[in-house]
Amino acid sequence: MKLNRFVIPLAVFAALVVVFAVALKRAPEKQFVRSALLGKPAAEFQLPDLLKPGTNFDSRTLKGRWVLLNVWGTWCVECRAEHAQLLAIQREGKVAVIGLNYKDDDDAARQWLKELGNPFDAVPVDPEGRVAIDYGVYGAPETFLINPEGVIVDKVVSVITPEIWQQRLLPIIEGKAK
Amino acid sequence: MIPEIGQFAMILALLLAAAQSFFGIVGPWRGQQRWMQAVYPAVAGQFVMLALAFGCLIWSFIHNDFSVRMVAAHSNSALPVYFRVAAAWGNHEGSLLFWVFVLSVWTLTVAAFATSLPRPFVARVLGVLGIISLGFLLFSLATSNPFERLQPARFDGIDLNPVLQDFGLTIHPPMLYVGYVGFSVAFAFACAAMLEGKLDQTWARWTRPWTTVAWMFLTVGIALGSWWAYYELGWGGYWAWDPVENSILMPWLLGTALIHSLAVTDKRGLFKSWTLLLAIMAFSFCLLATFMVRSGVLVSVHSFASDPARGIFILAFLVLSIGGALTLYVWRAPLLRSEAGFDLVSRESFLLFNNILLVVATAVVFGGTMAPFISDLLGFGTLSVGTPYYAPMFLLPVLPLLALVSLGTFARWKRGALGESRRRILTTLVLALVLGTAISLGVYGSSALLAPLGVVLGLWIIGSALVDPIDRLRRGLSLAPAVLGMTLAHIGLAVLTVGITTMEYGRQERDVALSPGQQVELPPYTFRLEGIEEVEGPNYLAHQARLAVFKNGKPETVLLPERRNYWVQQQALAEAALGINWRRDLLATMGEELGNGAWSLRVQVRPLMRLLWLGAALMAFGGFLATLDRRYRRQREVVTAPASAAAAPAGGQSA
Hints:
The structure holds two protein chains of two kinds.
Chain A: H1 8-26, E1 46-48, E2 56-58, E3 67-72, H2 77-92, E4 96-102, H3 106-116, E5 125-126, H4 130-134, E6 142-146, E7 152-157, H5 162-173
Parallel strand pairs in A: 3-4, 4-5
Antiparallel strand pairs in A: 1-2, 3-6, 6-7
Chain B: H1 2-30, H2 33-62, H3 69-74, H4 81-87, H5 92-113, H6 119-143, H7 167-196, H8 201-232, H9 243-268, H10 272-295, H11 301-306, H12 308-332, H13 347-377, H14 387-410, H15 422-443, H16 450-474, H17 481-506, E1 508-514, E2 519-522, E3 525-536, E4 540-551, E5 554-559, E6 562-566, E7 571-575, E8 577-580, E9 584-595, E10 598-607, H18 610-627, H19 630-640
Antiparallel strand pairs in B: 1-10, 2-3, 3-4, 4-5, 4-6, 6-7, 8-9, 9-10
Helix pairs in contact in B: 1-2, 1-6, 2-4, 2-5, 2-6, 4-7, 5-6, 5-7, 6-7, 6-12, 7-8, 7-10, 8-9, 8-18, 8-19, 9-10, 9-13, 10-12, 13-14, 14-16, 15-16, 16-17, 17-18
């Protein structure tokens, strides 16, 4: 018997329904969307460094240190709220703070750092968000904590408050968590 | 009291919808004339009840009845009355009621205009529309009741989201909804044809104007939404490829494909099963879009989880309606054979390519929209898909599509060696190449490859769209509205293409911190901040910047962007200022106060931005003109004659 090709749309639709049904069933379990990147090696990238015009920043140079990769932009209102905490983290000196400048204007970004102070060890510039895509970034601010082996161990969506830093991120770095 | 009347009217409408679907489907099946007759009062009664229910909802909003949960959650006594009315459909519950109300209007229109069609067929169409209405009313009453009371009542409402307080947004959702629901008519026609097991050219001719009208509303709705995002969200974006926008774009792409495929079925009796499938798919995506926009099904797993009852209901409804239609399709589509054939370079095959490319474009958008959802579901975590994916992927099918528009308009039905039109094709192409490159490189100095390509393709479409109408006029023939409409719609597409490419490759923007007296250059324009003052609105306080714009040193215009603080919701919002003429848009948006009197500002120059809206308007107007064609009204005589007469000589070369 010849297979009826008019079945194909129904089959595709049925597959989609299964996907939706599973999603529906699983939805209540997923209270928090944890980034799938947790526990995975952080994507490597080379991008122009805002602080050293004409040179590229290479993420491989970070191996062996704890890294806080902060995604920010001058257009992002919450980033301004977060800035003081980033400055405090930089002063503590326990991690390298890298500020991925996301979908931003170079001049505006420099101006911002001049006015508010610079909490970053390096500022790779990602105007089109290509690296941000590798990190599954939705918007700014988002921050990734990367361990000395280059593995992403935590991700903070929205502002890093002093509490998040003291009670969540710092214990991981000092080996007191888990 | 009034909300209870509305609630009661909704329940009556639900019962009438049940009657309408029962008599509409079972009547023709059993050959019961009286049952088929009973469909009409059910349709009329349902319209009256839903109009009453929707009226009650609007009444509750106008009179600030904060004992109704929805009014308390989405309105406020300080809100101007027209925004209070718009708030009635600016939320999940109200928009569902609005959806069924619009459906009842379409159903009533079909019932009123379908007097000349075979009665069993009309009964089936109305029956299918009744089932859709039944599903929506059940969903609304069971999970999303707009008239739910709040105990105790609030003293004042929580206010409408300030982003939504805008004229564009008061009319954007209604337009979209009229479009979405309009595709339910094409869907019902497809289902009725499948129930009867036969589909002829008369069917296609009948379905065409309804589809085109729905498409026209969808076009206007998308354009309004994009326009709203452009000037209200304030950062100059007009299309962000977010799931909600994608959900609107997909039915539009499929609707466009359906319009073209219907043309082939109408003129040549071909593509029958394909046309049916497109009609089903277009409506499926309309359903999906309705649920996605308001219920956030695909937007994130979170909102899906917020009310699992809704999710399950939506899924069940989709399975019954779309699954049912597709099952019917498996069974009936093999019966529909197309007798005629066509050559490779005929208009049929160009329209087939058009359909394939439009479906591929839909698949690209669908894939991008679903990927984060599926990835999250399978435990790969959240994944963001943005412009870097959509822009190149969407161009893959769209660029050849644009090139084919010109070739397709030159091709003839059935067979056409391009031979006779080869000279015209070459002439228009060379003209477009020279002019397009000159404009793109000469005027705008774009260096990217895509900029001249877009302009050239656009000009080529305009050139070739004009050849046939000019030819007809020269030979002293009249221009049928269908031809004029098609020509205008194609020109609209071309204008849109030229606009988007020139704007995308020629725009300039700067983010700056300015204190009064300072200025910023975007050659040839200079923006100077003259001062900042405080302004008070009905429900907000604002800082207003005064930006004087100079072109080559000469005063051009003054822009007054605002940063508003809405005091009820404590939300700050930038109100962009636009300086518009046909050559360019100047755009200024206020950011944060930086201290010492300085403010962050974004200024932009966007060449030919107006062409985007002009193009969309031309497309919609072209669609409107096409529905006025005499062929669609003459069908009354044609349809009453034996079916074979329907294949009467097709009126010339119109599509």
